[in-house]
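Lab meeting notes turned into a lecture example. A postdoc, R.K., suggested we walk through two folding results consecutively so the class can see how the record format repeats. The first protein's sequence and structure tokens come next.
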Amino acid sequence: MWEIGFSQEASNYAIDFHPYNEDILMAIESLAFTADGLPDDGYVELEPDIYLWQVAGHSVLYRRMTQGQRRLWIAIIKPNE
């Protein structure tokens, strides 16, 4: 299982727009239960362990940290317009 952390910006988005952003938050939470911290589809690796994921009408930029504790750091959540 992966631990998920949020930047201040991503955390603010999660709090400020709840419950309207429930779909994206549930999609992010589902990453915690993947074997490799990657979604099934809709993502591109921008740099080693840095991903841009298109899901639930949003763009999510996150970093996968595999050394030590397995952690996903959600940097940015932006709605697609």
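The second example is placed directly after the first for contrast:
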Amino acid sequence: MSRKKVTLGSPVAVGGLDGNCFPGNRREDLETRPAGRNEYYKLELSRPGKPERNTQRGMWRLTGFYGYPEGARRRDSWNFIRRLAQDSHLPWCIIGDFNDILSVNEKKGRNERPNWLIDGFRKAIIDAGLSDVHMEGYPFTWFKSLGTPRAVEEKLDRALANGSWFQMFPYAKVENLVAPASDHYPILLDRDPAVRSCRPQRKFKFENAWCLESGLDDVVYHC
């Protein structure tokens, strides 16, 4: 386990199999708990200026998750989510590629997903006290063989959270960025969209005097 002071922006971005938190402009305490395996990565964060003992507006937990793609091992993923839910009483959000869908409407093309897979994943989510974070944009996050008769699309990537996390971030949403660098579209977890939209936008002003600075070319080149 390691504990670091890092800078995170309001959005937390996750793309495909390997989810990442991309730097932004908000300082938060970050405690990383690597799992030692590829299935999940756990972070504990605290809001700036909030005491850690105050779990209502202080610390919260973020888990990056990758579910087993094999149907025979899907139950292992579901049970693992249940165990993760018991690890902590903090507000919790889990995000990533679950390799599962919650309804038949989350798949398009080819054969329908078996009901036992959909029902099993849904029951695991209920048992863990989680609900879907609303996603905006294109409804599917994974694709295969687009432009062919065998094309298929599914919503395999998502964010789920427990009730106390939704109380902490009531306006949170997920955005599908639809940037096909792989067969998974990146998704963006935006915790405080309402707060950020109310912030005044700073106007950029270029000063002609900067052209006289000897190091200007190097600064621009390395931006």
